[in-house]
Specification:
about 50% strand; 11 strands; mainly beta
Length: about 120
């Protein structure tokens, strides 16, 4: 089973920073894009940030200028640097890889299990 694992979450005060990481198995045949999503209990999962590999990055409006996505398709790993955190950023964060674990399996979405980020004083 192909599994990606997030790390780096936790409790932080408003205005603070966290660095989320997501690591998957090697070797990974090919990755088309990497993304982060988040979900608050009782609400739908929402898009946070993505990067095509290679290609541009995209961010949801509410986190522009505060969060930065990066990744390495060869490891494969991805990172979400989160600064100036706000209470409304509190959610479970999920990483998603869009790609081919093997050429035979075809293109699929692979999700991490999620990690909690809580922003509170």
């Amino acid at each position: 089973q192909v599994q990606f694992v997030e790390s780096g979450g936790g409790l932080v005060q408003p205005g603070g920073s966290l660095r989320l990481s997501c690591k998957g198995p090697r070797p990974f045949f090919s990755i088309a894009s990497m993304a982060w999503y988040r979900q608050v209990p009782g609400k739908e999962r929402e898009f946070v940030a993505s990067m095509d590999t290679p290609g541009p990055t995209n961010y949801t409006e509410s986190i522009k200028g505060r969060f930065t996505i990066s990744g390495d398709v060869f490891e494969p790993t991805m990172v979400l640097e989160m600064n100036s955190l706000k209470p409304e950023d509190t959610a479970v964060y999920y990483c998603k890889i869009d790609g081919w674990f093997t050429e035979l399996l075809g293109r699929m979405d692979y999700w991490g299990k999620g990690i909690l980020v809580a922003v509170s004083s």
